[in-house]
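Appendix B, record 7
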Amino acid sequence: MREFFESIMPNVIPKLPALWNATLETLAMTGISALYILVIGMALGILLTVTKKGGLLENAVVYRVLDIIINLLRSVPFIILLFLLIPLTRIISGTSIGVAGSIFPLIVGTVPFFSRQAEAALAGVSPGLRVRSGRSAQLLRHYRCRSYRSGAHRPGYPDNRQHHRKENREINR
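Structure tokens (predicted):
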């Protein structure tokens, strides 16, 4: 079998270990940058969604600044962005080549696209659901604070279901 592949690809078979090493480096580079892109892009997408007009935390200044930065980074071709980021990449990762030198430009070049995708996905969620989810978070924080202040989180604390029902009625008004 090896003879067959050597006859078809005589220059590839001797370099198979280097090819395997390059494949692992590529997977590491894309995997590491994908984790950062997911976290940063999702955070920016959520921030864009909640600060836009009609959002939960409407803030025109924050939204406009983020919007301009994201649109600017999205409009620059990646190869030009890669070239422009070389000095900053050297400061951050110590090199501008290889796996370590490619992670930062990949993150900077891809986060704006992912954040817009996250913003578009979150914009598709009905406003009523967003308000209810915010209300649920508010109720959860309220109950957590009340239970810790009252000592209800300690084992053996008496059951106060009636007290919580009364409190829930007051909150929902």
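Remarks on this record: The helical segments are 2-8, 16-51, 60-75, 78-84, 86-93, 98-123, 127-150, 161-171. The mean pLDDT is 81.
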